[in-house]
Every structure is written in C-alpha cells, then in structure tokens.
What we know:
The protein is of the alpha/beta class. Helices cover about 30% and strands about 20% of the residues. The radius of gyration is 24 Å and the shape is globular.
Amino acid sequence: MKPVTIVSIHRMRTAGLMILALMWTVVLAVPAAAQDYDLVILNGRVMDPETMYDSVANVGVKDGRIAVITKDTVTGEETIDATGHVVAPGFIDGHFHYTGIFGAKVALRDGRTTLMDLEMGTLGTKVDEWYTAREGKWPVNFGAASAHEFARSLVLDGYECIDTSDATNSRKAGTGWSSKKLDLEEANKVLSVVDEGLAAGALGCGSTLGYMRDGVSAREFFELQRLAGLYGRQTGAHFRYTPGSEVTEANGIQELLANASALGAPALACHFNNPGYNLVQELLVRMRARGMNVWGEIYPYAAGSTALNAVFLEPEMWVETLGYKYEETIQDVATGEFYTQESREEMLKKEPTRVVLVYKMPKSAIVDWLRLPGVALCSDAMPLVPDEVTWESPYDAAPNSHPRFSGTWARAFRMGRENDIPLMQTVAMSSYNLARPLGEMGLKAMQERGRMQPGMVADITIFDPETITDNSTYEKGIVPSTGIPYVIVNGTIMVKDSEVVQDATFSGQPIRFERVESRFEPLTIEGWQKTYYASPVDFGGGVPGSQPRNMGAPDALPDTHGHFDRPADN
C-alpha cells in the first residue's frame, strides 16, 4: 500500500450551505526509505476532524510538516510509539489573555500548540512590536487581534497599554475607556488606532464590549465591525450584556450578528457559555447555513473569572437586575472567600481590579456545551502570574488562578468520555472548529493547522483517550493536565513523556496576516447622509450616533444629528 496524500480540496456552496469535499487518493511513489522522516509516529489512532478520517496509521513528519499518513512501515530519526493513543491536530486556543512564557508552558501540558487573544488582543499601534518580541523566542504559535479597549484607553485616557499584561493599570488610569461616549473626532482616532493594527496583520478586532457598555454606542460597535470587515476579518466580542439573563445575553449577540450580517463580515461570539446559550447556538448554526462566517467558543466550567470592579458586578446589575447573591457567586481567587456587598465595597477601595471567580451557570449545562457542533474550546486564561515566574519555574510557583488556565482541553475530553460524547466531536472543538473559520478569512496559518492531513503543519497532540484528565480545581488552579504524553509544535517535540522539554528549540510561529495598506476612511456626517438619506430629515430611524433631540415640524428642527454624539448647531 502506498502513502496517502491530499490530491485536492474543493469548496462548494449549495443553497447557502458550504460543503467541504476532500478527495484522498493513492499516489504512485517510491516507498519511504529508512530515515526519510525527521519524526515518525507509529500505530496511533489518527483523527482528522475535517475529512473525518479515523484509523490506526503511521505518520511521517518532515521539515515541520506532516509528510505522510500511511498503513505502511515508516522510519525516521526519532520515533514515537502511539499505540493506544489518539494522534490529533494540535489544540488551538483563541482566547488566551496571559502573555507570559510561563503560560505557554502550562498550556503545552494541556495539549495546546497555538495561543491567540481574539477577544482583547494588543494595541493597534503596537502589533508589530508585540509579534517581534516573540518571534524565535516562543514555544508555541502566537497571535492577537487589534484591541478596541486599548485604543479607547489610548485616545481617551492617554494610557498606552500593549496587551492584557498591563490591563489592570490601563483600567485604573482613567474611566474614559469604559464610560465615555465618543464624539466624531474621537471616534476617528479610536478607529484609526485599531486600523493600524489591522493593516499590520492583526487577526481582526477584539472588543471587551461588555466592560464598556456605558461608553460604547451601537454606532461605534457597528463601525468597529465595519472596519474589520474591510479587511475580511472577524470581530470577536465579549457581548454588551454578558453576563446577563437569557434574554439580554441573546440580545447582546444579536447586536454582533446583526452587524455581521449587514456588513457581510466574520464574527466570533466569545465565551457564550452563559444563560441563553441555546438560542445563541441556533443563531450561529442558521447563519452559517446561509453562508456567513460566524462561530462561537465556550469553556467547560460553571464559573467565569473577572476583575472585582467589572461593571456587571455592581449591585444594581448583579443583585437587583440578575438576582444573584454575592455570598453565593463571587469568590476571591486568592483567599477562596466569598464576598458580601460590604466586603466587595471595602476591597474596591484597596484593589479594584482584584481577580474573582464568578459562578453563573449550573454544572449540568457544561455537558450541553460540549455537545454543540461547530463550537470551539477556549480557556480565557487571565494574566495573573508575576514576571519573575518564567519558563524554568515550577508550576506551583505561580499564584492561584481559574482552573481553565491549565485544564480546559483535558477537562473537555474527560467529560466527553464520562458522558458518551463522540470523540471526534471533542477533537473538532479542540482545533478545527477555530482553524476552519479563521482559514476561511484567508489566514494561511490556520488553513494548514487544525487538521491531520499530509501537507499540513505538524502541530500534533498525542493523548490517551482513556486517561486524559484535568487536575486543576478552583482551590488549586495551576496543576498540569495528564494523559497527554507528547505535544509537537511545527515538527518539534515540546512535551515528551508527559513533561515539557525544557531545553527544546522554541519553534512557535506567528499567526498573522501579511501587512497591507490601510483601508480605513475617516467617518463624516456628510458622507453618511449622501449614502443613506433620501430626504434631508431623519424621523427616528437612527441617524448615526444619536436620535433627534427635539420634537416639532421638520423645518423647525435644528441640525441635531451627528455621526457620533455632537452638540447641536445653534
């Protein structure tokens, strides 16, 4: 039997449904000679979620890529016996906020080969600097979106925050980032900063809209998605009303998806494992069936994590509107103690951005989330680790954190095993369900990852489906996962015999687009009116950024309409 290779990949659309058809064929080739491959993986259960290939086979890796998947005997310079193990695409995390190298070490033990921040990202003016700082120095692949929040912080508060490692300081530098509504000049400045990141190759726009709900108008968020859409890239968002009720959660994503539909732009529903998730999933599935590139992500935990001063934890929202009790739902990560309204107010005076766990969903819902097709896993790992904790540090050197930081993927596989969820479903959630939509945006690095196929990048995770297990808990949140003996990044073994290879060559690659010319055109009131007005007066349909301020006959109305908030002319 000769080696299997991909002959062609055809993408067809029929009645709005995108069908991926891959044809595998046998190629006449000279049988592999001894030592032809840098690495061979023998006798493993090779699983590819794109083609649904699922068979015991041998894998040959050459020059950082999967060269062959075959039943034939293959040999190489290094051999892994994967008998009884799954050989899967390397796990991909699109929601990883912690940018220190210790975080990569923790993630490797959970099988992750790519870490990206698509919800927040990095400051648009710093995208090149952010990527350059990691090239050749990072053990896993890395990428980031252009950050909406940090653009607002720069323009409105004068604080230059490169990424989430400095977010606690940027959020304390002023209140403009979260609460100020933009005028037209400010709006163009914020969008220009975001645009600079997109032109530099950022992976889309990342927006923490739910933390800025008082300041970001519907118009501003629409323009942000429009900007990303000009590049054919996604906007990933923490929804306006997250966390909320099953109604407001759905309303929040409907804002994101309505904009995406109107603009023909990709969109990512960040961590929608909240009330209303059933409707959110149906919206996503129905929109994809109509050819739209929209998708969502979940983490398999009943509790989330955030800063104590998050706007949605204010008593007016958390207690009075949503009906939660602090004593049952808000837990200090460091001490394990639950807050009362009084103790929260006292801590806000001392440490407003202190990290807490937020219990908001029943544990029974987790299994539902893991059964959702087309959904990606994410960790939402937070930057809680001090700089002195490095690659060489032991795992217990770091302070406590949410267990999703270190255990999300192993937990998904364990819970899948315990609840009879098809293994291929979890494999797809682990990699392909994020690689596919990013690849459809034209991102080459994701078109060749998340798949076990000849020609693809050799990001590979090998795990025991019977023993893979998360070990982190809310009380002890940074304990490495087990049952994952090998993790390979761009053909380099980074985890061997269930231990991170401390002296391995760091082979992580940047996940980014090529630099292009800016596509942003500053917003003007006149331009909008010329495009969308059929008459000179708007009667309440929503002039950009505001509604009419006065009532009366049309000819008596002053010019009160601004693209963003702007004082009426006198």
